[in-house]
Design a protein that fits this description.
Jelly Rolls, single chain, seven-stranded antiparallel beta sheet, 19 helices, Thrombin, subunit H, alpha+beta, 5 domains, globular
Length: about 750
């Protein structure tokens, strides 16, 4: 690999804090093996492959290692294959195969299994890494720096616990290209998958235990390459990139990086939406990683070299007409400096294009008005120049767009309202009067002012979080106050996500949901029966698009955020169920409901006439009998299935259960008081939830909010909540007075 993934970089940071460099001669400090390193390498070499993934165009961007684990199946590291890129595998005999399917993957564990159309491959035997002892001689085979089939030997130094998994620490020199290769014992069994090298010493590496790979092989989440190449990519029905650069989409944002092939690194991404006529308005929010760069709106574009551009560049706002491919055919119509542009932040750019007139606004303020008729009809979209890295969101086109409220005006108004929080005005007067003659006093005053500003900044952040939380709660209560059949479950689930993601783009995810439904509907005949529709939906989600139940990272909060489940195509039963129910309704089967089995949410198709069908979305849309459901309940709780377990749940109860999941995940973390906003939201939805009241009282007390804790305890005492020890509650209340 030319570069190690972000996850690997984080692991290396953790490693640097945990361990020191080791120097071990692996072949002289252990007992003589039953087989030699040469024999192990010779036996395994035919099963070790080279993994190549594509870069821009058809260029090869990186290489790594993999090994055969089954008929046509190749195991490797996830960071070796990259995301949404074409991948090929070269066998030891030189034959090359395109990867036809990502058979399974787990980002957190940095593991992937690929499928190629090759037969009669020799799989390596998988060992039991749980039994791997410290000091065991191990052999790694890989392609370091592109040198195929290289062999190194060493010993297991230790097993290290990380937040996401245990890893095998080995005294082996690891180089780029070793990633994804097998770590073998002297019986030729795979004990691990080589993952990364240490920055402390060249003789130290890490491998993911092979036991972490086994669940992926047992319960894969296959995605054909035709679908894999769409993960993170722009929808071609919406956008057309021109002049290359790397355009991607995630969390409702469009990201661009790399230099375009146009002169000056120019690259465009044109919207395919229909254009209003004769006049139109187009807007977008843009943020640059470096204000020396340039990125913004393109309009009146002919799909080639001609278009207008309206964008920030070096802190100024430019309106440029591009009449051809070179700088000699570019005309800067206007360049202005404006206080309305906020460097380093999100800025709203807006253009109104009429016949012969162009109006350009920044954050709701008109900054450019010009007459120019050089270019007329054409498409609108995004533009970037040089090596700029930029983000875009909330792209809109209409004959008339609503006005943009200026962030600068909001900021000024907020400052006026909050000015009374600190005595800054008096401090400023003192500084001005003493600045020249009292340098020592000025230093002390400046330090004191900085302390006060830091306290105020912390207070403002808490205030902003509280305002955000209150707004989301109010919107969630309003959404769930509707009659059951009118409640927008998708909106409510996204609002749960918004508690932790203030910038969540609801419109983007609605469009994505509608696009999924459209793709499923295109596969169906108009008169398809509901059962056929659901079978097609299950196939689309779980076998064609790669949605799957999270295995190695079940308790990650991202699995409870519907937007991140849609981004990563990975989730827990309840979030996958929400997605399934919403899509089922959109393809003509509104009779799919949620069924809250203990510790394992499923869905059920409940026709008005006839027998229903339970469906386990966590297991790829598997159809369940009642005895299957009973087995799930016994496995998860040790109890028996009861009739109430099979009753459909309400949409409000689904949201409450999602919040309880987040509370449970957060309580297991290092700072459980950080989950107070989940509890606040749940109690707003279920005011009589005594258990959550007690939980919040304890967390409030832990975070120093004694007043809030006493309010919750008083509520519990006033209602004599069943199941709670009132004497202990009174003791807790009195302790808060100390």
């Amino acid at each position: 690999m030319k570069r190690v993934g972000v996850l690997a970089a984080l692991w290396l940071t953790s490693v640097a804090l945990l361990i020191a460099a080791e120097k071990i001669d692996p072949l002289t400090k252990v007992n003589a093996p039953a087989k030699s390193v040469a024999e192990v390498a010779a036996a395994a070499r035919a099963s070790v492959v080279t993994v190549l993934h594509g870069g821009r165009g058809n260029a090869i961007d990186g290489t790594g290692t993999g090994f055969v684990v089954g008929d046509g199946l190749i195991a490797t590291s996830f960071h070796v294959i990259g995301e949404a890129r074409p991948i090929a595998v070269q066998l030891a005999d030189g034959k090359k195969f395109d990867v036809v399917e990502i058979h399974a993957w787990d980002r957190k564990l940095d593991l992937a299994v690929l499928r190629i159309a090759a037969k009669d491959l020799k799989p390596l035997v998988l060992g039991d890494s749980e039994k791997l002892a410290q000091g065991t001689v191990v052999v790694a085979i890989g392609n370091p720096l592109g040198l195929r089939g290289s062999v190194v030997a060493g010993v297991v130094s230790a097993k290290r616990d990380f937040e996401f998994s245990e890893m095998i620490q080995v005294a082996i020199p690891v180089e780029p290209g070793n990633s994804g290769g097998p770590l073998l014992d002297l019986e030729g069994r795979v004990q691990g998958v080589m993952t990364l090298k240490s920055t402390l010493t060249p003789n130290l590496g890490f491998a993911m235990p092979v036991n972490a790979l086994k669940p992926l092989l047992a319960k894969p989440n296959p995605v054909p390459m035709s679908r894999w190449l769409t993960i993170g990519t722009l929808n071609s029905a919406d956008w057309q990139p021109i002049f290359d650069a790397r355009w991607s989409q995630r969390a409702g944002r469009i990201l661009v990086e790399g230099s375009g092939k146009g002169f000056g690194g120019r690259a465009l991404c044109l919207s395919q939406r229909p254009m209003p006529t004769p006049a139109y308005e187009v807007s977008v929010m843009v943020k640059l990683d470096d204000e020396a760069g340039a990125a913004g709106l393109a309009f009146a574009a002919d799909g080639a070299d001609k278009h207008y551009g309206f964008y920030p560049s070096a802190g100024k706002i430019r309106l440029t007409r591009f009449d051809g491919p070179t700088v000699f055919e570019w005309t800067i119509l206007r360049e202005v400096s404006t206080p309305h542009y906020r460097p380093g932040e999100w800025n709203a750019l807006k253009i109104r294009h009429e016949k012969g007139k162009i109006f350009g606004s920044v954050n709701g303020q008109l900054v450019i008005e010009i007459e120019d008729d050089g270019l007329r009809d054409g498409k609108t979209g995004l533009a970037k120049f040089r090596n700029t890295k930029a983000e875009f969101k909330q792209f809109q086109i209409a004959a008339k767009l609503p006005p943009v409220e200026s962030p600068a005006v909001l900021s000024d108004a907020l400052e006026k309202q909050l000015a009374a929080m600190t005595p800054d005005a008096a401090l400023d007067s003192l500084l001005v009067g003493a600045l020249k003659e009292k340098a020592n006093a000025n230093q002390n005053l400046l330090r004191e002012r900085a302390k006060r500003m830091e306290k105020q900044a912390a207070q403002l952040r808490r205030l902003a979080a509280a305002v955000h939380q209150s707004g989301v709660q109010a919107e969630l209560l309003k959404t769930l106050a509707q009659p059951e059949e009118k409640i927008d479950l998708f909106q409510a689930a996204l609002l749960v996500s918004k508690l932790d993601n203030a910038e969540l783009d609801f419109l983007h995810y609605r469009r994505e949901l509608d696009e999924f439904a459209k793709q499923v509907s295109m596969k169906l005949p108009k008169d398809a029966a509901p059962e056929t529709r659901l079978d097609t939906l299950s196939k689309f989600l779980f076998f064609e698009s790669g949605f799957h139940g999270s295995r190695g990272d079940y308790y990650n909060r991202a699995n409870s955020y519907l937007n991140e489940v849609m981004d990563d195509r990975e989730g827990i039963p309840i979030t996958l169920a929400v997605l399934y129910m919403e899509l089922a309704a959109r393809i003509g089967v509104p009779e799919v409901v949620g069924v809250p089995l203990p510790s394992h949410f499923v869905v059920e198709y409940r026709p008005k006439v006839g027998k229903g069908q339970l469906i386990d979305v966590y297991e790829g849309g598997k159809k369940l009998s009642q005895s299957d459901a009973a087995a799930i309940v016994r496995a998860n709780t040790g109890g028996e299935l009861r009739e109430e377990h099979l009753k459909p749940t309400t949409k409000r109860e689904i949201i409450v259960r999602m919040l309880r999941n987040l509370i449970g995940i957060n309580n297991g973390g290092e700072a459980p008081q950080g989950g107070l906003h989940y509890l606040d939201t749940l109690i707003a939805l279920s005011p009589d939830a005594a258990g959550e009241r007690l939980n919040r009282a304890l967390l409030r007390a832990q975070s120093g909010d004694k007043i809030g804790a006493k309010e919750d305890i008083s509520w519990l005492l006033d209602r004599d909540a069943p199941g709670l020890d009132t004497n202990r509650l009174r003791e807790l209340y009195r302790s808060l007075d100390n």
